[in-house]
Every structure is written in structure tokens, then in C-alpha cells.
């Protein structure tokens, strides 16, 4: 089975190109999720797309929009039957810095999961991803402009719903949670303590802990570990680093603790995850953010 992927940088911070593109005949066939958004476009064949336990047969022209944290996998409907897809995977920083109006607008809407795009846009997806594969000059610019075109089309055709604005009394609490999450994403490789986070929120430990769990659905330690594991998963697939290196570079000072936490979140050992993923996804280029 042919495996052909193009990846152009997952975002570790806003200075790196935060959009990746794929063109493949294979997809990770076990349940997983990303910390980025994904636009999946089936170009040829048919496939079984499982989203949060619900199965759907997808056919050429079908387009699926996945939000970060959405559990999913894709596999052939019949054994040996091939399919081909294109995917655009992007971090929200691709739409600008945190105070950018375009990014703020995008974060205020919920995009429909099953999308319809114009034939012209579908052709651009195929064309621009092929340009990226061939390393055509300006292809990164084309991919970024394509992402904005897709979002513009989604808005023009009303394939979204507006997320209800927060009550004014909640804004300060949400701002504190957002600040904490940004801090964690920027410092996850370091030895973060709850006191470090409290210093940027000006809340008491008990009050902030309660607010964080109510908002995020897990406590601070669980969130930090989850984010570190998701970053580790990328390195297990896309680098040749050993597991100890990956654990250490992603904030785990103890390999046994790393393995235990990894199993809690991923339902398998790091080695098992690496083997299954690399059997399917073989990148032709490694993201700059992962090389570092």
C-alpha cells in the first residue's frame, strides 16, 4: 500500500508555521485525537470513519471537520480496499495571535462536523497539497490562504453555529483559565507547579482548582499530563528519538511515571503506540517544532 504524507509543521508556538497537510492512502486505524483542528477530505474510494464511537461510511467528496480532542479513526470498509484522502491539520495560531479579530471570530463559532465545499475549493485542496509535496515555491503561502478560503466559505454558507457568549460575570474566571492554559502550553517541558500557575491568576489554590476543573473537566495535573502525552505522541510517530528522550523532553523526569501516565491516556504503552502508528504513517518530512 502506498503511503505518501506531507507535513508542514505542527505549532509549538506562534513563530512556527502551524499548518500541516497530508495526502495518503492510509490513516491511523486506532482511536486517537489531536490537539489541533483537522479538515479531512476523502478524494477516492470509501472508508469507515469512526468519530467518538459513532461510525459513518464516507465516500469521495465527503469532508469532515474535527475539533481538537475529538476521538476518531479511519479504516477501510472492506479488508484490502484502498482509499485516498487529503487532510489539513492546523493550530488556531494559524489564524493570528490571540487578540487577532479573525482568530477571535473563529473561536466564537462551532463549525458543522460534516461539511460541503465547492468543487473549486476541493480542486484547490488537491492542487495546493500537491504543490506542497513537490516543494513548489510559495506553497506554504498557498496552504495558508486555502485555510482562510475554506473558513470564509463555511461562514458564507452558514455551516456553523455561534457559540453562546459568556455572561459578563463569567468573563474574569474564563480569562484566568485561558491564561493558565496558555502558560501550560508554553511551559509544559518545564517542571510546572500549581504555585507557578496561581502567580498569574491571583486566585487562591482552592478557588482556582475548582474553577479549572469546572471549566476543563479535569484538574491541573491531569491537564498538564494530558498535554504532555499528546506532544509525546507526535514525537513517537515523527522522530527517531528513544522513549526516554521523549519523556524527558516533554516534562517527565521519571520514565516509569511517563509510561504509567501514557497508558492511562492512550490505553497502551508508548512502544505499542509507536509501532502501530509508524506502521501506518510514514512522513516525508518532519515538523520543525518536533525536531527541536
What does it look like?
The chain is of the alpha+beta class and 292 residues long. Helices cover 44% and strands 16% of the residues. It contains eleven helices and ten strands. The strands form three sheets. It has a five-stranded antiparallel sheet with strand order 1-7-2-5-9, with helices on one face. A three-stranded antiparallel sheet has the order 4-3-6, with no helix packed on it. Strands 8-10 form a two-stranded antiparallel sheet. Strand 3 (47-51) and strand 4 (54-58) form a beta hairpin. Helix 2 (119-133) runs antiparallel to helix 3 and helix 7 packs across helix 10. The longest helix is centred in the C-terminal third of the chain and has 19 residues, at 220-238. The protein is globular and about 55 Å long. The two termini are 31 Å apart. 29% of the residues are buried.
Give the helix/strand layout:
Elements: E1 19-24, E2 37-44, E3 47-51, E4 54-58, E5 63-66, E6 72-76, E7 84-90, H1 101-107, E8 109-111, E9 114-115, H2 119-133, H3 139-156, E10 160-162, H4 171-187, H5 194-201, H6 205-216, H7 220-238, H8 243-249, H9 255-266, H10 270-278, H11 288-291
Antiparallel strand pairs: 1-7, 2-5, 2-7, 3-4, 3-6, 5-9, 8-10
Helix pairs in contact: 2-3, 4-5, 7-10
Amino acid at each position: 500500500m502506498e503511503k505518501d504524507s506531507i507535513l508542514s509543521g505542527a505549532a509549538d508556538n506562534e513563530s512556527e508555521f502551524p499548518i500541516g497537510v497530508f495526502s495518503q492512502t492510509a490513516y491511523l486505524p486506532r482511536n486517537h485525537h489531536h490537539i489541533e483542528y483537522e479538515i479531512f477530505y476523502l478524494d477516492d474510494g470509501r472508508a469507515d470513519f469512526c468519530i467518538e464511537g459513532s461510525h459513518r461510511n464516507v465516500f469521495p467528496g465527503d469532508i469532515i471537520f474535527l475539533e481538537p480532542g475529538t476521538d476518531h479513526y479511519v479504516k477501510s470498509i472492506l479488508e484490502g480496499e484502498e482509499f485516498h484522502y487529503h487532510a489539513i491539520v492546523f493550530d488556531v495560531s494559524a489564524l493570528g495571535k490571540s487578540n487577532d479579530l479573525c482568530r477571535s471570530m473563529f473561536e466564537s463559532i462551532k463549525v458543522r462536523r460534516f461539511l460541503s465545499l465547492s468543487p473549486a475549493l476541493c480542486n484547490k485542496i488537491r492542487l495546493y497539497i500537491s504543490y506542497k509535496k513537490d516543494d513548489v515555491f510559495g506553497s506554504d503561502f498557498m496552504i495558508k490562504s486555502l485555510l482562510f478560503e475554506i473558513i470564509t466559505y463555511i461562514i458564507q454558507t452558514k455551516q456553523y453555529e455561534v457559540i453562546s457568549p459568556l455572561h459578563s460575570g463569567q468573563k474574569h474566571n474564563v480569562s484566568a483559565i485561558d491564561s493558565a492554559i496558555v502558560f501550560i502550553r508554553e511551559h509544559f517541558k518545564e517542571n510546572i507547579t500549581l504555585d507557578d500557575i496561581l502567580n498569574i491568576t491571583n486566585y487562591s489554590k482552592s478557588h482556582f482548582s475548582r474553577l479549572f476543573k469546572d471549566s476543563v473537566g479535569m484538574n491541573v495535573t491531569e491537564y498538564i499530563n494530558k498535554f504532555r502525552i499528546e506532544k509525546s505522541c507526535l514525537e513517537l510517530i515523527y522522530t527517531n528519538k528513544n522513549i526516554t528522550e521523549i519523556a524527558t523532553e516533554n516534562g517527565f523526569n521519571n520514565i516509569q511515571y511517563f509510561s504509567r501516565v501514557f497508558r492511562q491516556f492512550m490505553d497502551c504503552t508508548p512502544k505499542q503506540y509507536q509501532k502501530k502508528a509508524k506502521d501506518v504513517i510514514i512522513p516525508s518530512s518532519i515538523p520543525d517544532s518536533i525536531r527541536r
